[in-house]
């Protein structure tokens, strides 16, 4: 059975979906962008925006009774590969291999976009 997960400590989903789906086999998180809990995009460097994405992902995982140290795969979408080093450097709390795509249109100006 699949259970929708939503966190009050992450920004509300920007569409008709949940933050994550929890199954007997794992938790599948929707993309998290640099939006605060009020649903506003934060200003700042790519490192600050990445940190917000990770805080959001952490909140979603905790709502699903999980944590960042249990993540097995992360995909990062960037609009500029110049941001790659800053994003992967700040991603240390997620000690899993990352895949990264760039040249990708990101909704809501969400650069970076983290998915686990």
UniProtKB/TrEMBL annotation:
GO terms for cellular component: cytosol; mitochondrion. It comes from the Eukaryota. GO terms for molecular function: deaminase activity. Belongs to the RutC family. This is Related to BRT1 protein, down-regulated by mating factor B. The lineage of its organism: Eukaryota, Fungi, Dikarya, Ascomycota, Pezizomycotina.
């Amino acid at each position: 059975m699949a259970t929708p997960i939503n966190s009050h400590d992450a920004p509300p989903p920007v569409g008709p979906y949940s933050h994550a789906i929890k199954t007997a086999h794992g938790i599948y998180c929707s993309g998290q962008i640099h939006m605060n809990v009020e649903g506003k995009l934060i200003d700042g460097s790519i490192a600050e925006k990445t940190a917000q994405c990770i805080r959001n992902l952490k909140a979603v995982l905790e709502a699903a009774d999980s944590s960042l140290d249990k993540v097995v795969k992360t995909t990062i979408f960037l609009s500029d590969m110049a941001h790659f080093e800053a994003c992967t450097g700040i991603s240390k709390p997620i000690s899993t291999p990352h895949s990264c795509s760039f040249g990708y249109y990101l909704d809501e100006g969400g650069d970076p976009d983290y998915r686990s």
